[in-house]
Input
Amino acid sequence: MALVLAAGALAGLLLLPLATKIVLGLIGFSAIGPVAGSIAAGTQAAIGNVAAGSLFATLQSIAMGGAFHGVLAAIGGLFGGIMGALFN
Output
């Protein structure tokens, strides 16, 4: 059972970057900024001046390839902790 959980967790971790880019793209976050007419563009218009470090800024950074490395590092640490607990 633990091996199946580990395999599922590893598959999820490996697919996370692709899934994240797809979901962010669907709501309008792109590598060059929010797509005109999208949910992301509407949200940015409603917010006005987007504060650094806000959720919107973080999502845009992930779409542009910036913040995602930190997110993956945190998830990788969590994955390692779970695997350690399962196999210990």
